[in-house]
Amino acid sequence: MAAAAMSCAASLRLLPFKPNLFASSVQYPAKALILRPLKPSELPSFRRTIITFQKISTGNVRPPSASPPSSSEDFQPIEELPPELQEIVKLFQSVQEPRAKYRQLIFYGEHLKPLDPQFKTRENKVEGCVSQVWVRAFFDDQRNVVYEADSDSSITKGLAALLVQGLSGRPVPEILRVTPDFALLLGLQQSLSPSRNNGFLNMLKLMQKKALHLEVKGEEDSSSEESLESSFVPTPETNGGVSVVDKDTESKPSFVEDLGAEDSDGGSDVVALGSRGMRIREKLEKELNPVELEVEDVSYQHAGHAAVRGSAGDDGETHFNLRIVSDAFQGKSLVKRHRMIYDLLQEELKNGLHALSIVAKTPAEV
Amino acid sequence: MEGVAMKLPSFKSLAPNAISIGHRSFSRVRRSSSLSVFSAASSSATVATSSESVSLGHRVRKDFRILHQEVNGSKLVYLDSAATSQKPSVVLEALQNYYEFYNSNVHRGIHYLSAKATDEFELARKKVARFINASDSKEIVFTRNATEAINLVAYSWGLLNLKPGDEVSLTVAEHHSCIVPWQLVSEKTGAVLKYVMLNEDEVPDVDKLREMISPKTKLVAVHHVSNVLASCLPIEEIVVCAHNVGAKVLVDACQSVPHMVVDVQKLNADFLVASSHKMCGPTGIGFLYGKSDLLQSMPPFLGGGEMISDVFLDHSTYAEPPSRFEAGTPAIGEAIALGAAIDYLSEIGMPKIHEYEVELGKYLYGKLSALPDVRIYGPRPSESVHRGALCSFNVEGLHPTDLATFLDQQHGVAIRSGHHCAQPLHRYLGVNASARASLYFYNTKEDVDSFVVALADTVSFFNSFK
Fold first, then answer.
1. Which stretches does UniProt call biased (Polar residues) (chain A) (predicted)?
2. More confident residue, A197 or B413
3. Alpha carbon distance B263, A63 (integer Å)
4. Which residues of A touch B461 (CB under 8 A)?
5. Distance of alpha carbon B392 from its chain centroid, rounded?
6. Which of B 430-449 lie inside 8 A of A, CB atoms?
7. A99 and B461: CB-CB below 8 Å?
8. Which is nearest to B221 in space by CA: B196, B258, B203?
9. Element (H, E) at B339
């Protein structure tokens, strides 16, 4: 991982200086994508599990929020990416020469499974591409999303192939969690500014929108079978009309913050951590000696998708938000910090813990 | 050549390829002072040997600091002036100067600064009028850009004068800015839009246009020089045709005013529009030229301060043109900077600029068409057909986006890829997009050479996958 961190920095240096690199680095809270179709007034009251553990009172208790690492300098660590995508990123990082990178990219494109012309429809077309790009998505029998794509431009086709290979066969939440940040790691000087000409960004957005759409449709089909507690309720508006993931990424964080603010008022909804949550807390406390520790069970947000339903694990405790402030992170890169935490929670990960969203800081950084 | 030497004492009016003894001795004296600046400024400039004069492109490069940079590790080669032009330092200084020394609102105040600002602003208007040979500076309305100017005519003149069944004639090669406003207004008025297609030379079919113009036609709106085809329309002829049936003519001169002499009286156009940012001026300012009596007859477009005479609670009376169409505080500094751009261009001389670009454009066309699998759109240059200095093209089997991306990232060459705001034209040509390299008088032969080398490299890179 250290190598990844270092070559990550190296790839960044290849990029021309973009002053707004981080400012516009998409705040892409996947959870906002899940929640987005609902108007705030329609939000069901979420039952949340929050325990804030503070050794030293810092005076400002952060309101429980659903957003993943929100500070703009954090960009998505590579471990949060689907495994295939991680491999692809590492491959590109190992190729230093720009021309060779292009060759690699085009190679991916050439080996992309052709898309049947019948799927080259308007709904499958990526908006705002100067070249034509189509993306198709469907569930396999394990409710993982399978993608197919095509483009008339070699470079765009390569990027599409990257995304198809990196995201295909993965479950919806994992796909939704992916932010475009990883494109920076490829070293292709891919701009991340939301603009109508940004084919790559728009491709990813469309793929995520389609994944979400599949999820919503799937839930509608099965919502009669199960009554899911505090699950995201599809409304008529969301049916096929998932609010267009708009190009204005600025609106996302504020939406999430509103949500956070709203929920902090619902004190009566706090529920104790389940056994896994407790174990996680204990482990982290013991090993990291944190100054601040927040363990938040957000599994309900993922209830209803295959990996959770009847999962071998403790009552569906599958997704957690962690916020840890500890000296143990001193001198360690972001990637290393996340690695530490994942290592500590190996057992849980093997036994049904599906994903973690981590904020890891040293006391000085708070 | 000797005649030229006699006539031109000034260094600036050197014809690009002039070779003459008299010239040389004269120009040597002049040149030596700026010679060091050339060699410092542009590493690609071929400094004059004793038998060659420095080309216009090389001479002016020092005035454009932005051209002296590297992008993605290569020297910048800017070939996208049809999208927007670069600005010489004098224009930037004029803008800075305005804000630093006499920024003040115009037409309103009495104090010294506002009087000075007003004078300079109105002087800029006079400069524009003179530049296109309008008979009066009152015929120049400052707008945000040419697009706004066309909308002005559409909403002001169009809404008043177009009735159901009236026809507006356009070509399929028009820029979206000269299509969409007419669509919007024809929806409201019931007028009908008619388009001429291209002929076998890949230029709009002027014969068909002549046939199309009928007593029903109220307006003919056409480009002067096409931003994709590089073709030039015979505006004078078209105007004669249109006036015969009582139709007005609007000329979209965005690609002509910056590059050649445009004389509105000679053309006899009723309306003419252009944007400052394509002619070495800043963005945010453009103009509409309209014949006095026409503008007089037109109702306001945008309402607000400046365009009024008296304002009561229930109604207002309006100012005379051009003020009638200039609501609110204008882009004062920008207008003044446009004036400076016009001064700069005039000092070089539009005929010289045009002559240089014809040569360089021919050179570009020649080198580009010599490459295999390259298809350039528009007419072939000849004695009778002068193309604008741009080439929109496609390479067989290579998407223009791939092309432009690779050129930029591997070679620092800036071209455009897409539909260039001319989707109907591309649809007609049967392509989704094209690449376009466009020149301006600050480009050099070396720029074209670099581009062609880079293009060949790009093509071979992508071909290696086949």
1. 232-241
2. B413
3. 68
4. 99, 102
5. 16
6. 432-433
7. yes
8. B196
9. helix B332-348
> What does DSSP say about strands B77-78 and B413-414: parallel, antiparallel, or unpaired?
parallel
The β-bridge relationship of strands B416-418 and B374-376 is unpaired
β-pairing verdict for B217-223 and A292-297: unpaired
How far apart CA B278 and CA B86 sit, in angstroms, is 8
Chain B residues in contact with A130 (beta carbon < 8 A): 400-401, 417-418, 433
Model pLDDT, residue A341: 87
Taking each helix axis from N to C end, the angle separating B350-370 and B445-463, rounded to the nearest 10 degrees, works out to: 20
Q: B76: phi > 0 → left, psi -120 to 50 → alpha, else beta; which?
A: beta
- Among B144, B179, B182, CA closest to B302: B144
> In the block, which residue shows the tokens 């093997």?
A350
Task: Say what the ipTM of the complex is.
Answer: 0.75
Q: Which residues contact B411 (CB under 8 A, 6 or more apart)?
A: B74, B77, B450, B454, B457, B458
Q: How far is CA A150 from CA B299, B354, B412, in A?
A: 51, 44, 28
pTM of the model as a whole: 0.69
Beta carbons of B418 and A106 less than 8 Å apart: no
Read off the pLDDT band of A73 (50, 70, 90): low
Q: Which residues contact A85 (CB under 8 A, 6 or more apart)?
A: A162, A165, A166, A167, A178, A182
Q: What is the largest CA-CA distance in chain A?
A: 62
Question: Which residue is it, tokens 């994944």?
Answer: A211
pLDDT, one tens digit per residue, over A169-198 is: 999 999 999 988 888 888 877 665 666 567
Q: Which chain B residues are within 8 Å of A154, Cβ to Cβ?
A: 398-399, 402, 462, 465
Check B432 against A98: CB less than 8 A apart: no
Q: How far apart are CA B59 and CA B43, in angstroms?
A: 13
Q: Is B69 on the interface with A (CB under 8 A)?
A: no
Beta bridge partners of A293: A53, A324
The answer to whether the CB atoms of A106 and B465 lie below 8 A apart is yes
Give the list of residues 6+ apart from residue A27 with CB closer than 8 angstroms, or none: A67, A70, A72, A249, A252, A253
- Residue A265 CB neighbour total at 10 angstroms: 9
Burial of B268 (0-12, 13-18, 19+ CB in 10 A): middle
DSSP string, B203-233: SB-HHHHHHH--TTEEEEEEESB-TTT--B-
Q: Which residues on neighbouring strands pair with residue B220, listed in sequence order?
A: B169, B249
CA distance readout (Å), A255 to A28, A178, A212, B148, B445: 11, 19, 18, 36, 54
Residue B201, phi-psi category: left (phi > 0), alpha (psi -120 to 50), beta (remainder): alpha
Dihedral of the CA atoms B318, B321, B324, B326 (nearest 10)?
-160
Could you tell me how far CA B352 lies from the centroid of its own chain?
A: 16
Q: Is B437 helix (H, G, I), strand (E, B) or coil?
A: strand
pLDDT tens profile B287-324: 999 999 999 999 999 999 889 999 999 999 999 999 99
Query: Which one is catalytic: A126, A129, A176, A188?
Result: A129
Structure tokens at B173: 């090669």
Count CB atoms within 10 A of the CB of residue A162.
Answer: 29
Question: Minimum mean pLDDT among A191-200, A286-295, B38-47, B262-271: which range?
Answer: B38-47
Tokens of B242: 């249109």
Where would I find the H helices in A114-250? 154-167, 172-177, 182-186, 199-222
> In this predicted model, which residue has the larger pLDDT, A138 or A33?
A138
Contact (CB, 8 A) for B374 and B451: no
Please report residues of A whose CB lies closer than 8 A to that of B417.
Answer: 130
Whole-angstrom distance, CA of residue B460 vs CA of residue B277: 35
Rounded Cα distance, B147 and A202, in Å? 28
